[in-house]
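Form 7-S
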Amino acid sequence: MKKLIMILVPLMMLSTIWAIEFDWDGNFRTRAAMYNDEAEDNGGHIDSRLQLNMHGRFAPNWELVLGTEIGNTNWGGFGGGVGTGGVNIETSELYLHHNWIAKGLEFKLGQQWYADHRSMVLDDFISGLYISKDDVAGMKAELAYFKANERNTMINDDYHIVMFNLLMDENKAGLQTFYGNDLKANGMANFTIMPFYTVPVGSANLDVTAFVDYQVVPGDDQLGFGAAVKADAELSDLDLGLDILYIGENGLTVLSPYYQNGLYLFGWGNWHDGTTIDFPYPDGDQGLLSAVGQLKYPLNQKMAIFGNLGYVTTMADNDPAVGLEANAGLEICLVPEIAKMAVYGAFGNPGKWTDGDPNALYMLGSSIKVEF
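Output:
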């Protein structure tokens, strides 16, 4: 905390000298979970995290953005033990932002966050230059250069990423492309094309994302392909959903994905992503199929119950089953649009891939989130 104060106090003093306007936003999260693992050992942990973002506007349409993360701190662990004063502070975002509204032009220079449509390739902080332009033949165009890995600064062995996207109808449809060049260090490169389309179908919404991934690998080139389909429907007060993900045997070239299929043991769920036993994403040599049914029902204005039932498998494996999972929970609104919490549990039947072949896997947890 002392480090954060040392950063913020000088910034506030400078704001009194120059005409800099500061805005703040962020979120706080604490979560607790008990679970077992592949060897049927029981365990659990509690962790806390604060993400704090500062926007310093120093001219019309110009701002500097600083994003920090305090934590993630495990209670009783490093930075969270008895008498500790060393909670870690990390810089998650640090970039110059210009938004030329009259021309529909925007750019970001520095460490920034970016996520593709379904978080299949990238949903994380990354350094580079991002440029977007509205109304390019009726579409929004995005162009970015990211540096994925610098390695030795004295040698041309870096991992470069170029992204180009065309987005239509307020991002309800579009085409996203990624070119990755890691030839100097690893002899690898890729070109990924990911079209997506979101369309209402009666009372439901259907979201389809497909990809073709041309991969340059040592010895031979190969082609990966797959698709993600998400459907949501509202029947009276009951919300129903279906999430299906298919990835072929050659997989998908990813940077830092965060595809949420709604599971907690065999995927990444909304309330906890730290209890996953296995989610073999993108599993470049075995293929992947994830199919999850979802439901949510409000009990009143402040409480709702939810549940997910899903199956994950690596199709090209000799023993392909990864697991069958059912989870459910209760969401509670503490302060409208600011604070909410949930209690939840998940139970899974794993395949024979697990060490020790346990009869059942489980997770019980609770989380509280505050956004401001």
